[in-house]
């Protein structure tokens, strides 16, 4: 993958971070990087006062650093800022963070040497992944703490994972045949002053959310059949008189999935209308699709931006101190994503309740078991879904509305964007499990429907869904450990296999 700082997509991030695709810099990026670095070296030689290059950091911005101490300044910056705590970020998040830092530096506004960027690329391509604690970032001045832990490994310190083993950063570099970086003027600051940790976490969260927005339609369609849903509510005419793009897309998905189904009903056939958890699927899922599309647009702007400070405009011979490191755009978007994905889980859990509740499930056995009492069936699966939904609600409280001043009030408003991104990623994980539970319950409900009337056919898409579930999870006849079933279904959701199977059968979902 050729990196130029301009056109990285969320899909590209996944290819590198998860699938291990190699990266290289474009010729244009190399030229911009070298031009920017040349200007920084000229400024240092002239002894000009520039924040973070010939001065201290934060509240120390008025402390001038002598030319002979500029190298020491950068090393001290990395060591002093590596104060992360908590669990380590997953390897794919750190790889995404490294890629995004390379892409930001490739824009040529940071004044970093080409050799320094090439070290980061080499680490990425050879699989040297720094161990980065997940807590410690305020989201302005960017992700200082997590990025400092990344840079520690670049200079041969800290810890890293290489070939599946944890070792010191120096040992990992040596084994991979990579020379440690000796940081020069501005390089330490340019490497850690940016939004790449929150954007990396956010990129994986948004990728997961895009997948879940399709999976939710798939699960909803299977439950729709299991509960003899009234298909009139999905009519295109209903959507076009309130034409939110997501609503129109969701209803179209549902119609494709349910095409040819003999388990759905028409208005007045068995009932006049369904409860909201079925009837309002296009309206709810659709609003979430629109939210996800918006957040994806914000993230793709962010991952192609220069976010450090100061910025080097070498062609105009200007160095400008600004605030592009502030994570507010990502913070607000991640909070928005948290709310949106939580709603996918909320309405899914309500469908699960209707499936297992004998007062609501249109004549199905209580808790979808034949010998109720002796067997509890899927009773407790709804408990787990409810617990996850409740946890999502607490995680959905916005991080971006909080701010605590830092650096003696020089940095007096911060975004908490990395906290927002971490919460969003956790909500995506929780919601994946809720949707897996819905798949489990809907397939079990359809078993009873089909046993009662074997001549009826499932929809063109839902038939594929049902078979995909039954390929890995058999019908529940006697009580068994259901967490194993949920995990299997979660895996085919997360790895995209479920969506792929459906789209191969009925065309792309929106």
Structure description:
- There is one protein chain.
- Strand 6 and strand 7 form a beta hairpin.
- The protein has a three-stranded antiparallel β-sheet. The chain has a two-stranded parallel ribbon with strand order 1-2. A two-stranded antiparallel sheet has the order 3-5.
- With 510 residues, the protein is mostly helical.
- The mean pLDDT is 95.
- The chain folds into two domains: 193 residues, Orthogonal Bundle (Fumarase C, Chain B, domain 1), CATH 1.10.275; 294 residues, Fumarase/aspartase (Central domain) (Fumarase C, Chain A, domain 2), CATH 1.20.200.
- The longest helix has 36 residues.
- Its main location: cytoplasm.
- This is Histidine ammonia-lyase.
- Keywords: Cytoplasm, Histidine metabolism, Lyase.
The number of domains is 2
**Computed Rg:** 26 Å
Q: Which regions have little confidence, pLDDT < 50, spanning 5+ residues?
A: none
CATH topology of the largest domain: Fumarase C, Chain A, domain 2
Share of β-strand residues: 5-15%
CATH architecture annotation name of the largest domain: Up-down Bundle
- Could you tell me the number of beta strands? 9
- By CATH reckoning, the class of the largest domain would read Mainly Alpha
Helix share, percent: 55-70%
What is the SS-derived class?
mainly alpha
Estimate the mean pLDDT confidence: 95
Mass-distribution shape:
elongated
**Would you list the SSEs in sequence order as H and E?**
EHEHHEHHEEHEEHHHHHHHEEHHHHHH
The N- to C-terminal Cα distance equals: 27 Å
How would a crystallographer describe the biggest sheet?
3 strands, antiparallel
Number of helices: 19
Query: Which superfamily, in CATH terms, is the homologous superfamily of the largest domain?
Result: Fumarase/aspartase (Central domain)
Strand order of the largest sheet: 4-6-7
Organism: Fervidicola ferrireducens
InterPro entries: Aromatic_Lyase (IPR001106), Fumarase/histidase_N (IPR024083), HutH (IPR005921), L-Aspartase-like (IPR008948), Phe/His_NH3-lyase_AS (IPR022313)
Catalytic activity: L-histidine = trans-urocanate + NH4(+)
Cross-link (5-imidazolinone (Ala-Gly)): 140-142
């Amino acid at each position: 993958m050729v990196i130029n700082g301009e056109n990285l997509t969320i899909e590209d991030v996944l290819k590198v971070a998860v699938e291990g695709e190699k990266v290289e810099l474009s010729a244009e990026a190399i030229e911009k990087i070298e031009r920017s670095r040349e200007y920084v070296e000229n400024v240092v030689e002239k002894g000009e006062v520039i924040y973070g290059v010939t001065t201290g950091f934060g509240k120390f911005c008025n402390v001038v650093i002598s030319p002979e101490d500029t190298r020491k300044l950068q090393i001290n910056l990395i060591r002093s800022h590596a104060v992360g705590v908590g669990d380590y970020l997953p390897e794919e998040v750190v790889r995404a963070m490294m890629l995004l830092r390379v892409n930001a530096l490739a824009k040529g506004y940071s004044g970093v040497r080409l050799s320094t960027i090439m070290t980061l690329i080499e680490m990425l391509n050879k699989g040297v992944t720094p161990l980065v604690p997940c807590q410690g970032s305020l989201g302005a001045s960017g992700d200082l703490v997590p990025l400092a832990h990344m840079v520690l490994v670049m200079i041969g310190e800290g810890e890293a994972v290489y070939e599946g083993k944890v070792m010191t950063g120096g040992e990992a570099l040596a084994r991979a045949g990579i020379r440690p970086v000796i940081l020069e003027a501005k390089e330490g600051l340019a490497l850690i002053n940016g939004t790449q940790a929150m954007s990396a976490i956010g990129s994986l969260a948004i990728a997961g959310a895009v997948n879940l927005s399709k999976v939710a339609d798939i699960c909803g369609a299977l439950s729709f059949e299991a509960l003899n849903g009234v298909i009139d509510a999905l009519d295109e005419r209903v959507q076009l008189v309130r034409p939110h793009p997501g609503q129109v897309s969701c209803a179209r998905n549902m119609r494709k999935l349910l095409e040819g189904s003999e388990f759905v009903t028409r208005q007045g056939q068995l009932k006049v209308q369904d409860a909201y958890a079925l009837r309002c699927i296009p309206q709810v899922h659709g609003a979430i699709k629109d939210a996800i599309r918006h957040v994806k647009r914000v993230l793709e702007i962010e991952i192609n931006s220069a976010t450090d400070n100061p910025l080097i405009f070498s062609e105009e011979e200007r160095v400008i101190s600004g605030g592009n490191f502030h994570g507010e755009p990502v913070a607000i978007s991640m909070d928005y994503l948290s709310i949106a994905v939580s709603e996918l889980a909320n309405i899914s859990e309500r469908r699960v309740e209707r499936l297992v509740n004998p007062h609501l499930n249109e004549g199905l056995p209580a808790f979808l078991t034949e010998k109720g009492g002796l067997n509890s069936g899927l009773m407790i699966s709804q408990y787990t879904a409810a617990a996850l939904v409740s946890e999502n609600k607490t995680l959905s409280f916005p991080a971006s509305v909080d701010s605590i001043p830092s650096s003696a009030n020089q940095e007096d408003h911060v975004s908490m964007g990395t906290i927002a991104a971490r919460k969003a990623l956790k909500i995506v994980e929780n919601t994946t499990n809720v949707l897996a539970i819905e798949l489990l319950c809907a397939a079990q409900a359809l078993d009873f429907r089909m046993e009662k009337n074997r001549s009826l056919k499932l929809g063109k898409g839902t038939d594929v869904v049902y078979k995909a579930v039954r390929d890995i999870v058999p019908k529940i006849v006697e009580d068994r450990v259901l967490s194993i079933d949920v995990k299997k279904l979660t895996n085919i959701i997360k790895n995209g296999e479920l969506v792929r199977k459906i789209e191969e059968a009925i065309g792309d979902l929106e």
